[in-house]
Amino acid sequence: MTKRHTYRFLAIVLTIGLNCSHADAVEIETFTQPYRSVDVPAAEMGVLKSVLVEEGTRVSEGQLLAQIDDRVLRSSLEIADAAVRAVSTRRAAEAELALCEEQLRSYRELLSEGNATQREVDRAETNFWQATTRMQTVREEAEMRELEQKRITVQLAHRRIESPLDGVVVRIVKEAGEFVSPTDPVVLRVVQLDRLRAIFSVPLSRIDGFEKSQRIQVRISGNNSPVDAVIETISPVADAESASVRVTVRIDNRDRKILSGVICRWDLGGNLP
Q1: Domain holding 185: CATH number?
Q2: Is there a single domain that holds both residue 225 and residue 195?
Q3: Is 243 inside any structural domain?
Q4: Residue 113's pLDDT band (boundaries 50, 70, 90)?
Q5: Taking every annotated instance into account, which residue ranges of this chain make up the domain Multidrug resistance protein MdtA-like barrel-sandwich hybrid (predicted)?
Q6: CA distance readout (Å), 241 to 132, 210, 234, 244
Q7: Residues 187, 98 share a domain
Q8: Which of 147, 196, 201, 202 is surrounded by the most beta carbons within 10 Å?
Q9: How high is the pLDDT of residue 11?
């Protein structure tokens, strides 16, 4: 083989290699988004008394974010507490029951000794039965008062608007003084940013071999170094129009260095199993 033919052969091989590399290097892109985004609603209707956070505030799960006016319910709870603590009716019923029980016992003894009639014993038994019934009524009323107290306590808790997750407030929908109704209950939005999510449309020809929990690398706009990520879900259904499969990727962002809403690229050729 002459030197000229050798160069031509090497050129052909190099061209084939570059074409093969180009065929393998399929890069797809999408945007990062919060791992969770929750529109936080009010569980009870009413006037919004206060909003304790603003956009950009970092919040913890269970933290109080806003409060619905609860003055009427607090007054109702005071009444319910007083009713639960009331003991005069119960003590009167207990005393009456003890007296009727003692009378019944005495009349039965007198009857056995021949010093009382059966009618007197029957009357004492009736009085004892009535006293027992009144005692039961008092107990049931006390249980109802305790249930009412618990109901009001739950209603008060529902007027507290708390964060459902550790995250950041990104939108205030309603301000203090506005009415929150069942048809428009959302007060604010909280997102989780210590993790991010990226949803890619992977071509059907490239989906084989990828699996859930597989570690991959993606590139984030503005970040020169690749970022580790994990495949979280692979849709079992392909999109017929785009001939692609929806793949959700989880990106750790505990240091909060990656912004939500920036371009995220995935080189499928560089992540082939």
Answers
A1: 2.40.30.170
A2: yes
A3: yes
A4: confident
A5: 37-187
A6: 77, 21, 18, 8
A7: no
A8: 196
A9: 34
Long-range contact list for 255-260, CB < 8 A, 24+ apart?
A: 256/193, 256/194, 257/223, 258/32, 258/196, 258/220, 258/223, 258/227, 259/32, 259/222, 260/32, 260/33, 260/34, 260/191, 260/193, 260/196
Ramachandran quadrant class, 62 (left: phi over 0; alpha: psi -120 to 50; beta: rest): left
pLDDT in the model for residue 271: 57
For the entire predicted model, the pTM comes to 0.71
What is d(CA 234, CA 230) in angstroms, rounded to the nearest whole number? Answer: 11
Of 44, 62, 66, 46, whose CA–CA distance to 54 is shortest? 66
Give the residue from 131, 156, 181 where a domain finishes.
156
**How large is the C-alpha radius of gyration of the chain?**
37
